[in-house]
C-alpha cells in the first residue's frame, strides 16, 4: 500500500489567480509611480497619469538601446562598483539643467550609495535570505531585478529632477541623523538574522527569543 500523503502546503500569493494578478499589477504599479513622479501634482493617490502614445512606448531605436543597456550591465558586472547608476545619471541631468546638483539630490545619491555599498560589503549575507534559499527563478525575480528595483529605487531622484526641493543645512543634518539611525537598525537586524541562520547556537544570538514555524524552523 502506498504511503498516504500529508496535506498540501497552501500556495503563496493566492495561488494561480494571485500570481496572474501580480503579472499585471506590478508593471502597472511601476508605470504609475514613474508617471506620477514626472507629473505636475506628483500625487500617488490622484487619478492615474495618462500613458504616452504608442510611438513613445515602442520604437526599434528603443529596442536597440535596451539591448545595448543589457550589454552594458554585463560589462559593468565585471567591475567592483556597478550599481544605484540611474541615480547618478539623474544627478548629472540636474547639474545640466540647473548648473549644479541640489543638496537634496546629493543626499539621495549618497544614501543610495551607502545602501549599495552595504550590500556589496555584506554580500555573503545575501546567501541566507529567502530570495536565494527558497524562491526560484521566475517573473518576480526577473521583473524585480530588471525593472522594479532600478526604476522604483530611483524614484526619489526622479522626483527631485522634476520637482526641485529647497533644502537647508539644518534640515539636511536632521535627515542625515534619521538615515544614520535607520541604517544602524537595518544593518544590526540583518546581521543578526544572518548570524542566526548560519548558526542558531552562536553565543551572540543563542539567548534570543524565537518563534517556531510550521516547518519546524525558528525565527
Automatic annotation (TrEMBL):
The keyword Transmembrane applies. Keywords: Cholesterol biosynthesis, Cholesterol metabolism, Endoplasmic reticulum, Lipid biosynthesis, Lipid metabolism, Membrane, Oxidoreductase, Steroid biosynthesis, Steroid metabolism, Sterol biosynthesis, Sterol metabolism, Transmembrane, Transmembrane helix. One of its GO terms (molecular function) is Delta14-sterol reductase activity. Pfam families: ERG4_ERG24. One of its GO terms (cellular component) is endoplasmic reticulum membrane. Its main location: endoplasmic reticulum. Catalyzes the reduction of the C14-unsaturated bond of lanosterol, as part of the metabolic pathway leading to cholesterol biosynthesis. It is found in: Endoplasmic reticulum membrane; Membrane; Microsome membrane. InterPro entries: ERG24_DHCR-like. It catalyses: 5alpha-cholest-8,14-dien-3beta-ol + NADPH + H(+) = 5alpha-cholest-8-en-3beta-ol + NADP(+); 4,4-dimethyl-5alpha-cholesta-8,24-dien-3beta-ol + NADP(+) = 4,4-dimethyl-5alpha-cholesta-8,14,24-trien-3beta-ol + NADPH + H(+); 4,4-dimethyl-8,14-cholestadien-3beta-ol + NADPH + H(+) = 4,4-dimethyl-5alpha-cholest-8-en-3beta-ol + NADP(+). Its EC number is 1.3.1.70. This is Delta(14)-sterol reductase TM7SF2. Belongs to the ERG4/ERG24 family. Pathway: Steroid biosynthesis; cholesterol biosynthesis. GO terms for biological process: cholesterol biosynthetic process. It comes from Homo sapiens. The chain crosses the membrane at residues 60-79, 137-155, 167-186. It is a multi-pass membrane protein.
Amino acid at each position: 500500500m502506498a504511503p498516504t500523503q500529508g496535506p498540501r502546503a497552501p500556495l503563496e500569493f493566492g495561488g494561480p489567480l494571485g500570481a496572474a494578478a501580480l503579472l499585471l499589477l506590478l508593471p502597472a504599479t511601476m508605470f504609475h509611480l514613474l508617471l506620477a513622479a514626472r507629473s505636475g501634482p506628483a500625487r500617488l493617490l490622484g487619478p492615474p497619469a495618462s500613458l504616452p502614445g504608442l510611438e513613445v512606448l515602442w520604437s526599434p531605436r528603443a529596442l536597440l538601446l535596451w539591448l545595448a543597456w543589457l550589454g552594458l550591465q554585463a560589462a559593468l558586472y565585471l567591475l567592483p562598483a556597478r550599481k544605484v547608476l540611474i541615480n547618478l545619471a539623474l544627478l548629472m541631468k540636474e547639474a545640466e539643467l540647473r548648473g549644479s546638483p541640489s543638496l537634496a539630490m546629493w543626499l539621495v545619491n549618497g544614501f543610495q550609495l551607502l545602501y549599495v555599498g552595504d550590500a556589496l560589503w555584506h554580500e555573503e549575507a545575501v546567501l541566507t535570505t529567502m530570495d536565494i534559499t527558497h524562491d526560484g527563478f521566475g517573473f518576480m525575480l526577473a521583473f524585480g531585478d530588471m525593472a522594479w528595483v532600478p526604476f522604483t529605487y530611483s524614484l526619489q531622484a526622479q522626483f527631485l529632477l522634476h520637482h526641485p526641493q529647497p533644502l537647508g543645512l539644518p534640515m539636511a543634518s536632521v535627515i542625515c541623523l534619521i538615515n544614520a539611525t535607520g541604517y544602524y537598525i537595518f544593518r544590526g537586524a540583518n546581521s543578526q538574522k544572518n548570524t542566526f541562520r548560519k548558526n542558531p547556537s552562536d553565543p551572540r544570538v543563542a539567548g534570543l527569543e524565537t518563534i517556531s514555524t510550521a516547518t519546524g524552523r525558528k525565527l
